[in-house]
Design brief:
The strands form two sheets. Strands 5-4-3-2-1-8 form a six-stranded antiparallel beta sheet. It is built from two helices and ten strands, in the order αββββαββββββ. A hairpin with a 2-residue loop joins strand 6 and strand 7. By secondary structure, the protein is an alpha+beta fold. It has one domain. The protein is 32% helix and 34% strand. The termini are far apart. The longest helix is centred in the N-terminal third of the chain and has 54 residues.
Length: 181
C-alpha cells in the first residue's frame, strides 16, 4: 500500500507554534509573579500597620490605666524642647504596687521611666528611660477645680486628665482623691 502525501500537511508542530506557546506561557507566569509580588508587598504593609495599631493600643491602655490609678501628680511641665509628665500611680508596668512614672516627649519620641515609690531618684526621667513610640504630638490637659491646665500642673490629683498622643485621645479620671502612703 502506498501512502498518499498531501501537499502542505505534515504531522507535528512548527517552530512558530512552539514559540507562540512559549510566549503565552511566559506571559501567564509573568502575570502570576506580579500578582504574588503585589500581594507580598501588601502583606508587609498590612503587618507594619497592624504593628503600629497594636503599639498605639498598648500605649493607650497603659496610660489610661496608670492615670486612673494616679495618687498624686508631681509634675506636668511644657518647655519648648520637651514635655514631662510625672506622677505616682498604683498601676506600675514594670513593678507591682505603687510606683513613680515619668513620660517624657522629645522631638516626636515618647520615653517612659518607672521606679518603685520611695527610691527618690530625682533624675528619673533622665536616667532610666526607654522609647515607647514616635508621635506627631503630645498634649496634656489637666482639669482641676473648674480650670484647665495645659502648660504646667504640679501637686494634687486633677479631676480629669486628657492626653492627645498623635491620633490617640485618652480621657481618664483618677480614682484616688487623696494620696495614700
Amino acid at each position: 500500500m502506498e501512502s498518499k502525501k498531501v501537499l502542505g500537511f505534515q504531522k507535528g508542530f512548527t517552530l512558530i507554534e512552539v514559540l507562540i506557546v512559549l510566549i503565552l506561557t511566559s506571559l501567564v507566569f509573568g502575570i502570576v509573579l506580579l500578582v504574588l509580588k503585589v500581594a507580598g508587598i501588601s502583606g508587609i504593609r498590612y503587618d507594619k500597620k497592624s504593628d503600629l495599631i497594636r503599639q498605639n493600643l498598648l500605649i493607650y491602655y497603659r496610660l489610661k490605666h496608670q492615670l486612673e490609678g494616679a495618687m498624686e501628680f508631681l509634675q506636668f511641665k511644657t518647655t519648648p524642647n520637651e514635655k514631662i509628665l510625672k506622677f505616682y500611680t498604683t498601676q506600675g508596668y514594670t513593678y507591682p504596687g505603687n510606683v513613680e512614672v515619668c513620660y517624657k516627649y522629645i522631638n516626636g519620641t515618647l520615653y517612659y521611666a518607672e521606679q518603685i515609690e520611695g527610691l527618690k531618684d530625682e533624675k528619673l526621667c533622665e536616667n532610666s528611660t526607654y522609647a515607647i513610640g514616635t508621635f506627631k504630638s503630645f498634649v496634656v490637659k489637666c482639669y482641676y477645680k473648674g480650670k484647665i491646665y495645659n502648660q504646667t500642673f504640679t501637686g494634687g490629683i486633677p479631676e480629669k486628665v486628657e492626653i492627645v498622643l498623635g491620633k490617640i485621645k485618652i480621657l481618664a479620671t483618677p480614682k484616688w482623691r487623696k494620696r495614700v502612703k
